[in-house]
Amino acid sequence: MPDRSFLNWPFFEDRHRELAEQLDAWCTKNLPVDHHDVDAACRDLVAMLGNDGWLKPTAVDTDNPGPLDVRTLCITRETLARHDGLADFAFAMQGLGTGALSLFGTRSQQDWLARTRAGRAISAFALSEPRSGSDVANMEMTAVGDGDGYVLNGEKTWISNGGIADLYIVFARTGEAPGAKGLSAFIVPAETKGLTIAERLEVIAPHPLARLAFDGVRVPASALIGKPGDGFRIAMSVLDVFRSTVGAAALGFARRALDESIKRVAERKLFGAPMAELQMVQGHIADMALDVDAAALLVYRAAWTKDMGAARVTREAAMAKLFATDKAQEVIDKAVQMHGGDGVRKGHIVESLYREIRALRIYEGASDVQKVVIARQVMGAA
Q1: What's the mean pLDDT in 131-138?
Q2: pLDDT for 294-346, tens place per residue?
Q3: What are the residue boundaries of the Acyl-CoA dehydrogenase/oxidase C-terminal domain, all occurrences included (predicted)?
Q4: What is the rounded CA–CA span in Å between residue 49 and residue 87?
Q5: How many whole angstroms separate alpha carbon 336 and alpha carbon 288?
């Protein structure tokens, strides 16, 4: 039985505890899905999650608008990740992809949200470029004003849901000022003329990823989110909300690795006795449990702080993502070690966790970038 004691922490309300119980039961019944065809699996997961109401927290309800509940997003990602990494991916990208619309979209732009929250449309967040990943201010893609609209040219890469998304939130240089102050955000439907999938990208934990090419892509002025030059602020605001949830997904992976390890050492005998009786094994389990709880405290501290009305949680979210993803990697590595040969056997749960966790230390700001963010926040507050 997975440890649920953290749900009694003061970060949570009864509705969060009820959500965790109900979603866990749903996951036990429906997950994991077959990952053989990743595109089809993601489409099916989005439809399943939307049909059963689990995508509602990913975007604002335009009929009853209010702030996104980051604790709900984190609990959902942690729970899904513990059961199926691809289900977590499907959920997370619906939120990240539409985050700019939830936070800054006009009422007409937010018409997309009813579809994404119901699982009837798939969204994507198109920020990274071949020469600008974490260095967003170095973006090269352009959006040039032309009559009553804009023309986009350039490339985006490592775009999650690339190739299966129905809409892309695209960031491009409109040139109001140098660097970060000259970027803007746009809604680009997948069928827009001139937008093509230049390359599908394969990674160690299969997810739908692609490099996108924009060749004279024309969008109307109504596709602009916010004002010209707001793009960097919009992107950072979205990441400020969703970066904590990356730590939550890592936490879900780590909890599953710890659970599998506890079961393994209780059942497996070594030198005539259960592995669990070996002090070195007990030391590994203790280290894993310590890292899981410490990560959970940072993740839910960041989520609670945002939900309590903080304008920005840049420092808290960076700490949560950095610590949770790095420590989850260590926890899962220990799990692989304790599983011996089974730990590296293709298809084993800890082998899949080992592949799933690695990307989380890179996307939405690599671990080294988070250290820079934290240092600047700490020194700036001194």
Answers
A1: 84
A2: 999 999 999 999 999 998 899 999 999 999 999 999 999 999 999 999 999 99
A3: 229-378
A4: 9
A5: 12
Active site residue 364: yes
* pTM, rounded to two decimals: 0.95
Catalytic residue (choose from 155, 316, 351, 364)? 364
- Please give the single-letter amino acid code of residue 347: G
Report the C-alpha gap between 367 and 235 in whole angstroms: 18
Give the integer Cα–Cα distance in Å for 119 and 46: 5
Q: Once rounded to an integer, what is the mean pLDDT over residues 82-90?
A: 98
Give me 282's structure tokens: 């007990």
Q: What is the torsional sign of CA 223, 62, 212, 246? A: positive
Q: Which amino acid is at 85?
A: G
Residue 113 has pLDDT above 90, yes or no: yes
Cα distance between residue 313 and residue 239, in whole Å? 10
